[in-house]
Amino acid sequence: MNHNISDETIMVSRAEYESLKAQLAELSQQNKWLMEQMRLSKHRQFGASSEKSEYDQPNLFNEAEASADEKAPEPELAVVEKHYRKKASESKDRLPPDLPVEVIEHVLPEDKQDCPQCGEKLHVIGKDVRETLKIIPAKVVIVKEISYVYGCRNCEKNEINVPIIKAPMPNPVIKGSFASPEAVAHLITQKFVSGTPLYRQEQEFTRNGIILSRQTMSNWLLKSTEDWLEPIYNRLHEKLVGHEVLFADETTLQVLHEPGKTAQSKSYIWLYRTGGDAKTAIVLYEYQPDRRAKRPAEFLKGFKGYLHTDGYAAYHTGLGEGVVVVGCFAHCRRKFDEALKCLPENERQGSLALQGKR
């Protein structure tokens, strides 16, 4: 093959030209793919893992600054059946209608109720009213329960046997403990609903002059869980597997002190819940040290119906006959979200990836 070569032009055959064109297209496609992977990898490393466009979780340190609006007016209160509640408006603030009202009256002292001009007694001609919301911290009291014992004086004098009758008293929430149901409920709510660790609750109690150790609180939580919450959990479990549609998922959990495992090893929390057809939603969590397929098979024993999960193989093996595993549209949507993040920002609007995500 003869090539006519000059300083500016290289002549090639049609076949070689087509080959070079194909190579260029392939290299261009590879470069585009690598750029997409780089953008996705960079987002996974430095970006937020949420698929939402806006985030509703305020930062721990600047929550007040992020939520405040100096231009927003203060909510007003309106009297409703001798109680107070906020007037209807666009504000998000709400006060219950049965909130108790504490009235404080400010009057002039007797020696100040004389007219400064003529010396005659002053009388009330009007009043100014200011309403504020008062928050009272948790109140701690000792409850002393006394059960009286009764006997019969007539039997004491005239009979051989004297009946002794004791006034009934409710059983304690924990036998042999000074814990009350209210105290245990407060600790559980603070820890598992408000996310306040026991050591912080211990510090809060100490600041109020109450010495209540984490060990004592931990014992209360464990004992009351065994005695009162486990039976409820077991009953909810029975009702859960009786539904026709269930959802399941699992996530990693780090357990610091677990026999036979290092603190850095992974454990798992498995989640099972009822579907939208349930009149009353049931959501149950189960801790397991691993992610083996026998875990959902054991938990869902007796279940017959549709199980809504992701593509993890554990849900697709060993569940037995009568269980139909159905796919998750949220995971399908996640792929569109990843495809959207792979695109340059100027190409995202109107793209198929954005349509799929929506």
Helix content: 25-40%
End-to-end Cα distance, whole Å, is 56 Å
Shape: flat
Instruction: Name the average pLDDT.
Output: 82
By oligomeric state, this entry counts as single chain
| Rounded Rg | 35 Å
Strand order of the largest sheet: 7-6-5-8-9
Would you write up a description of this structure?
- The protein has helices at residues 14-46, 63-67, 153-158, 181-193, 198-207, 214-240, 294-299, 329-342, 345-348, 352-357, and strands at residues 77-80, 83-86, 149-151, 164-166, 245-253, 267-274, 283-288, 305-308, 323-326.
- With 358 residues, the chain is of the alpha/beta class.
- The chain has a domain at 169-240.
- Helix 1 packs across helix 8.
- Residues 53-65 and 79-84 have low confidence and may be disordered.
SSE blueprint:
Blueprint: H1 14-46, H2 63-67, E1 77-80, E2 83-86, E3 149-151, H3 153-158, E4 164-166, H4 181-193, H5 198-207, H6 214-240, E5 245-253, E6 267-274, E7 283-288, H7 294-299, E8 305-308, E9 323-326, H8 329-342, H9 345-348, H10 352-357
Parallel strand pairs: 5-8, 8-9
Antiparallel strand pairs: 1-2, 3-4, 5-6, 6-7
Protein traits:
358 residues; alpha/beta; five-stranded mixed beta sheet; two-stranded antiparallel sheet; 10 helices; 9 strands; flat
